[in-house]
Amino acid sequence: MSLSTPQSQLDEDRDRIVDSNDDEVLFCDEDEETAPQTTDILQTETAGATETEVWKVIIVDDEPSVHRATQLALKNFRFEDKPLSFYSAYSAEEAKQLISIDHPDTTFILLDVVMETNDAGLRVVRYIREELKNQHVRIILRTGHPGEAPEESVIVNYDINDYKLKVELTRQRMVTTAIAALRSYRDIITIEKQKQELTQALEHLQQTQNQLEEYAYMLEMKVAERTVALEKANQELYLLANLDGLTGVANRRCFDEYWQKQWQLLAEQQQPLSLILIDIDYFKNYNDRYGHQAGDECLQIVARTISNVLKRPTDLVARYGGEEFAIALPNTPLAGAQQIVQAIASEIGKLNLEHTHSPISNHITLSLGISCTIPNPNTSWKSAIAIADKALYQAKEDGRNRYCVFGEPSMPLVP
Ligand SMILES: [Mg+2]
What we know:
Elements: H1 7-16, H2 38-46, E1 55-60, H3 64-73, E2 78-79, E3 82-89, H4 92-102, E4 108-112, H5 120-131, E5 138-143, H6 152-157, E6 160-165, H7 171-242, H8 252-269, E7 273-280, H9 283-290, H10 292-309, E8 316-319, E9 324-330, H11 334-351, E10 366-373, H12 382-397, E11 402-405, E12 411-412
Parallel strand pairs: 1-3, 1-4, 4-5, 5-6, 10-11
Antiparallel strand pairs: 2-3, 7-9, 7-10, 8-9, 11-12
Helix pairs in contact: 4-5, 9-10, 10-11
This protein binds magnesium ion (MG).
């Protein structure tokens, strides 16, 4: 019972609300022993109903008669085919216990303002909204005295659903109030649920997007890895297909391909194309004398030496046979080819590679055949090679360590 409410006024209030009118709530005194207890009513109202099949309502009031009257007023009330389930608290502390621990899913609270203190009900409001952060439960403040209005700020700031004087609580008004509160609660829960579903859907979408991005990134990485591996393999294949494994210069296949292209190109341009074929003199004797490993090293040195003499990117040296090399010199007249021959002979001479089993010298020497022609598109690219080969044969015939231009007398090399 409120300390601020005189007993006489309370009695007056109770007397005013009579049960003769079906539309009014009975607030008059009842015999405590014969009046049905809250729990009895509860059991009657919601017998057999599970928690999810009822709307939970907490009545907070220090006057037991208010509890009984409220429940009687809403006795057969149903909303969306579900009954109410009432829970009673007679003080602010009991109210806090109910809403925080026992029934946090309460739909609305009919809350007395004046109980153990003048503002006990307002403290409960603050507790629910500020401490519990429960914004769902609808709160209907009730006071028995028109002069004891709760602070306006509380109504504004704490989402109070309604504010009623107890004298207004006729049965019809109770029903209207309950319907409004339940609708509001239902809408809030629906919106909340939709918000959660939307958040979950967004999170799921974000996750999917992240997974997709991760997958795309992994795919890109894999493609990049494969591309690098493929390029490397292609390069290795190219080298395998085009380079001589021992000396590192081009192989015969590569040379022939290059020669054909240059033949066509210079036939169109009508420019000279020179070819030098080179043979290491008495190389079989070298192998016999120094062994095949030394022979391989000799081939490597000669290949490197020839490569170093060639300066233009279009000049190409290739290992053409066992100890035979070929040089393609596009856009090179005979004089230019002869200069290259002399330069190679000079560099090989400087190396002074011992060859004691050579009948013509005590070091490595070369024989060379030259062809120089302006390619004829109607003539085979092989013709120039055959001519250079004949010139080489001539140089060998004439005693080796010399070069020969086909059709001309062979010339000894000056180291
Ligand atoms: Mg009170």
